Amino acid sequence: MTSQTLNRSARIPIFIGLCVLAASIIYPVYFLAIAAFRTQLDYQENPLGLPRQWTLHNFSVVWNGYGAGPAFLRSILVVSVSTCLVLLFATFAGYSLAKLNPPGAKIITGSFVSVMLIPSQVLILPIYLLLSALGLVGSYTSLMLLYTATNLPFAVFFLTLSFRSISDDILDAAKVDGAGFFRTVGRVAVPVAIPSLATLAVLQFLGMWNELLYALILLPDDSKRLLTPALSMIGQRYVNNQPLVSAGLLIAASVPILLLTLTSRYVVEGISIGSSK
Amino acid sequence: MRRLRTAVAVLTVATLAASAAACSSSKSGGGTSADAPQTVLIWDTGLLGKTNDNGSAKSDSFLHQAASNFHATHKNITIKIVEQGGDISANAAQFKAASIAGNGPDIHIQYTGGPTLSFSKYFVDLSEVLGKDTLSQFNGLNTVRKNYEPSGSLLALPYGSGTYFTVWYNKKLLKQAGLDPDYQPTSWQDLISEGQKYHTATGKPAFYVADLEGYVGAWVVAALAAGNLGSTAFTDQYSGKTKINTPAMQQAYTTWSNFFKTGLINKDAGEVSNGDADQGFIQGKAPIYFSGTWGDVGMYQKFKDNVGWSFIPMEQDAKFSDVAAGGPQVAISVTNYSKHQAAAEEFVKYLAEPKTQDLYVKLGQTEGSSNKQGDTSVIKNPLLKQQAEKLKTTQTIVYPFDNVMPQSVIDLYYRLDASTFLGKTTPQSAVQQLQAALDAEQG
Amino acid sequence: MTSVPAASKVVGAADAAPTATSLRPTAPWRRRDRRIGLAAAAPAFIIVVGFMMYPVLYALFISFNKTDGVDFEWVWFKNYSNILTDPLVHQVFLNNVKFLISVPLVIFFSIIVSVLLFEKIRGWKTFRIIFFLPNVLSIVVIGVMFKSIFGYYGAVNSIIAAVGGNRVSFFTDGSLAIWVIVIALVWSGFGYQALLIMSGLSAIDTSVFEAAALDGAGWWRRLRWITLPNIRRELGFVFIINVLYTFTSLFGFIFVMTAGGPGYATTTVDYLVYLKAFGSENLGPGAALAVLLFLFIGLLTILQNRFFRIQGND
C-alpha cells in the first residue's frame, strides 16, 4: 500500500505538524461548544473564560422557542431527498459524459457551466416567479427541485472526472460479459467510484443543509421552515446573543459531522477496491 | 414539537370556531361575504412577534396576544402570524418577489422609512382607513408617508415611540476617576473635555467606540448634522429639497473624524463590530459609550442604577441645541393585493387603539407608545421612563439618515462613516459620494 | 457558511470533458452506446436546463431594463456602460484579483495534507474530520476567531509587542486586511479541497507507487512525477472552483471580518452584485453586473480548461 512510501523518521514531524494544524481548528470549536452552555450575561463578562455555571437553557430555547426540533426533521427530509436525486442523476450523466461520448456532449456540459456561472443573487426574483407560476412556492417540492437543479452541474462534473479514471478494459470486459448500461454502472463503475460518491454526498448534503436564502424565501410559512432559516431567526439588528447562536450551530453541525464520520469507512473501502483492479 | 402541537391545536380550534361562526350566520340567513370566516396573514420581520431577546415565549408575544384578543371580538377573522428571519435583505427580496407574484401576506410589518417607502407600490393608503381623528393622536407619521411629504399617502401605521441614539455613562468608572457620576454633557465639546479629564486621571481610554461597520459614526454624524439642519434634515435631502453635499453635512463628518484624532478612544475602535460593543462597555473598557435606547433592557439588567445616559450632544455653535436623533422603527402596512383587505384593515384599526399599543409597550419595555394617549404608567424600565419624559420636552427630533434613505445609500453611508473616522476618506469626498449614490438611486 | 454552497453551486467546467473514448474508431455498438449515453445524460440536462433557462433569460432581460420588477423601461446598454465606467466597480474588481492569491495557497496546502492523510498517517480519519470542521462551523465563528487573533489586542499583536514592536492595526489597513482574510480563507478552505483531492488519490492505481518505491524514488520525486500527474484532473477542478469561488462567494466571509472596509478596500464583486440586486429598487444594474461577471468567469474558466488540458497532453 501507499503507506510504505513515507519513511518512519519523516512521519513524526509531519504528525506533529498536522496536530498543530488540528489544534488551530479545535480551539474555536471548543470556544463554541463552551459558549453554548453558558448564559448571555456570563459570556459577555468574560467570553474566553470558563463558565461560572453550566446551563442547557440555550439548547432548550433553540429547540423549543425557535422550533429547531421539527425544522431539523424537515431539513433532513428535504436535503436527503435532494442529495439522493443529485447523486442518482449525476451518476448517470457523469458516466455517460466520461465513457459513452453522447452526441451533443459539448452542448450539455457547456449549458451546465453557463447556468452555474451566473451569480445566484440575480436569479432569486425570476426563480420565485417561475415557481410561483407553477404553484410550488411554499412546498418542499420547490426546494428539492431547486437544490437538485443547482447542485447537479457540480456533481456531474466531479463524477465525470472520477468515472474517467476507470480503465476502459474492465468496462469492455463487462460488456463482453453481456452487461447492459445499468449493470455496468451499478456493478462496475459505481463500486470503483465509491470514494468520490461518498465525498460528493457529504459536500452536497452540507451545501444544501446550510443553504439559507432560498430556504427562507421559498418556504414563507414558518410551520414548514427548515433548520438553517429557523436558526437565522436568532439575533436581532443590534443584538448578538453568542451563546444562543453557538447552541444553534452545534445542533446544525451535528448532522454533517456525523455524515463525514460515517463516510470515512467508504473512502477506505473504495481504496481497497481501487487497488485490487 | 410542542410548538407544532400548539399550532395544530390552535388551528383546530380556529377552524371549529370559524365553522361555528359560518353555521350561525347561515342559519340567520343574512351572512354577507365580510362575515365569512377568513384568515389574515401577517409577515413580521422580527419586530412585533417577539417578547424578549431569546425568542422563547413567542406564542405570548405582543403580536400573538393582540391577534387572539382581536379574534375574541371578531370571531370570523383569524390572524396568522409568520415570523421572518433576521436578515433584512433576504426579507425584502422575499416580500418583493411575493408582491410581484401577488401571493404575499395581507399585512406586512417592516422598518419605517426607506424599507417602507421602497414598497409604496404595494401598500394601501391608511389615511382613509384610520381616519383623521385617530391619526391626529399619532406621532411619527412622517416616517411612513410617501416621499416623507405631509400630504403623501400613509403607507403604514408607525408603532412605538421608537429608539433614539444615546451616550451611555458608566457611573462607577467616572466616580473612581474623581468625576461626577451623574455627568450630563452641555455640548459635544464639553463631552470631549470630560473624556479628556477621565483620560488624564486614569491614563485609560474615555470613549468606547465599536465602529467596524460604521454604525456609531452613522448615529453621531446624523445627530450632529441635525444640530445645524433641524428636524427635517434628512427627509429634505431625500425629497431633493436640500442636498447632502452641503457644508453642514461636511461639518458633521469633520467633527466625527477629528474625534478619532483626540486619542481618547479605545485603540481598536475601527475593528470592533457592533455585536461585540455592549460587551466591551459592560467589561468596563471605557466609561463613555455610544449606542441607543434599544440597549435599555440590557443596560438596566447589568448596571441597575449605575448607568447614566444622554442624547448625543450638539456642537457648541449648533443652531439647534436640544436634539434627539431617532424615531419609530416599526411600521405596519396592508398590502393592496390582499384578498382579505377589509379584515386586514380591521385588525390594523384594532392595533391603532391606544390600549392595544399600551400592551405592546408593557410587554416590550424597549420603547414607549406612538399614540399620544398612551399610558406611560405601563413603562417599568426606569431608563425607558426617563427617556420618555425627556423626549416630551425635546425640541428637535430628527429622523436619522440611516432610516430615511434607500438601502444602497444607507450602506454607503455606513462605510463612509467608518472610513472618515479612520481618516481614509475626507469629509468632502464622503458627502459627494453620498449625493452621487442618492442621485443614482433616484435617477 | 458561504464557502460550501458556493463551491457546490458554481462550476461544472465540464466542457473540459474531452472523452478519451472519442479517439477510438466508431464501431456500430459504440454508436448504440452513444445513444444510451444521451438517454443517461438527458434527465440531468432536462432538470438543469429546463429549470434554469427561464430564470437566466429573465435575468438577462432585466439587465437591459430599468425596472423594479413591475414596470419595465428598455434602456439598451445603459446599465452595462454605467457599470463599466463606475470607479467603484474597478476598485472592487481589483480587490478580487488580489484575493486570487489565496487560490494557489489553498491548493498547495490541500495537496500536502491530502497526500499525507492518504499515506495513512496515524489518526488520519480523525484529522480528515477535524480539517473539514471549518466548513461546518459557519463563517461567523471563523471571523470572530481571526478577528481576535489579529485584533489590536490579539495574540499576534501581543507577540509583536513582546519583541518590542509597535502594535499593528491589521483590519483598518486595506492591504494588511486582505492578507489576514487570505490566511483565514486558506485555513478554512483547505479541508474541503483536500477531501476532493483525496477522492482523486484513491482512484490512482497503487501498483504505480509500489513500482516507484522499488525503483528507490524519493517521496518528493514520487509526489512530483507520479502523484500529481495522476490527479491532474482533480487539481484542475479544484483550481477552477477556487477561482470561481473567489469571484462569487467571498462576501459573507469578508463581511464578518472587515465589513468590506475600510471604505471598499476589502469589498468583492459578489458583494456588489448582492448590494445592487437587493439594496436597490432598480434591478437592472445588478443584473448587468452579474452578466458581466458571468462573461468574465466564463472566459477564465475556458482558459483554465485549456491550461489543464495542455498539461494533460505532454
Automatic annotation (TrEMBL), chain A:
Q: Which UniProt keywords apply?
A: Cell membrane, Membrane, Transmembrane, Transmembrane helix, Transport
The source's superkingdom equals Bacteria
InterPro entries reported in the protein's UniProt record? MetI-like, MetI-like_sf
Q: Mind telling me which CDD domains this protein's record contains?
A: TM_PBP2
What Pfam families does the record tag this protein with? Answer: BPD_transp_1
Keyword Transmembrane set for record: yes
Enumerate the transmembrane spans. Answer: 12-37, 71-95, 107-131, 143-163, 184-206, 247-268
Family from the record: Belongs to the binding-protein-dependent transport system permease family.
- Protein name, as recorded: Sugar ABC transporter permease
Q: What organism is the protein native to? A: Microlunatus endophyticus
- Please spell out the taxonomic lineage of the organism that makes this protein: Bacteria, Bacillati, Actinomycetota, Actinomycetes, Propionibacteriales
UniProtKB/TrEMBL annotation, chain B:
Keyword 4Fe-4S in the entry? The reply is no
UniProt protein name: ABC transporter substrate-binding protein
Q: Which residues form the signal peptide?
A: 1-20
Task: Keywords in alphabetical order, please.
Answer: Signal
Do you know which PROSITE patterns this protein is assigned to?
PROKAR_LIPOPROTEIN (PS51257)
What's the superkingdom here? Bacteria
Q: Name one Pfam family in it.
A: SBP_bac_1
